[in-house]
Design a protein that fits this description.
Belongs to the AMY1 family. Keywords: Nucleus. InterPro entries: AMY1 (IPR026060). The protein contains 4 helices and no strands. The protein is mostly helical. Helix 2 (about 25-35) crosses helix 3 (about 45-50). The longest helix has about 60 residues, at about 60-120. The protein is elongated.
């Protein structure tokens, strides 16, 4: 049982050192001191902390979410239009291919008729 407590304390100490060496403890301390020193305490301490740490405010976050939603709708509309245009293009290609095949067949018939008319008769 004693060994378990020692391991747990060692993990806590390692984590504390990690937070300290990465600057997290210093940043959190500065933010909490700034909050403490506010004469007029903000209505949302969490939002205050988020702003001080560089995160967006709740209202900014909500605006960004709305903008993201609008952009997703626009993307979906443009993608659907793109897919429709691709289908139209395939239709045009297919029509062109069929017409080209007909033209080739007609050209061969005309060439054969021309050859028959121009060629001297076999004796």
């Amino acid at each position: 049982m004693m060994r378990f407590k020692e391991e747990k304390e060692a993990k806590k100490e390692a984590f504390r050192k990690y937070l300290e060496s990465s600057g997290v403890l210093d940043s959190l301390t500065k933010v909490l001191v700034a909050l403490y020193e506010q004469n007029d305490k903000p209505s949302s301490a969490l939002e205050f902390i988020q702003q001080k740490l560089g995160g967006p405010s709740v209202s900014d976050y909500e605006k960004l979410q709305a903008e993201k939603s609008d952009l997703q709708i626009k993307y979906n509309e443009l993608f659907a239009k793109h897919q429709e245009t691709l289908r139209e293009l395939e239709g045009v290609k297919s029509l062109h291919s069929r017409n080209s095949s007909k033209d080739d067949d007609e050209r061969e018939v005309i060439e054969d008729e021309h050859t028959a008319l121009v060629a001297p008769p076999h004796r």
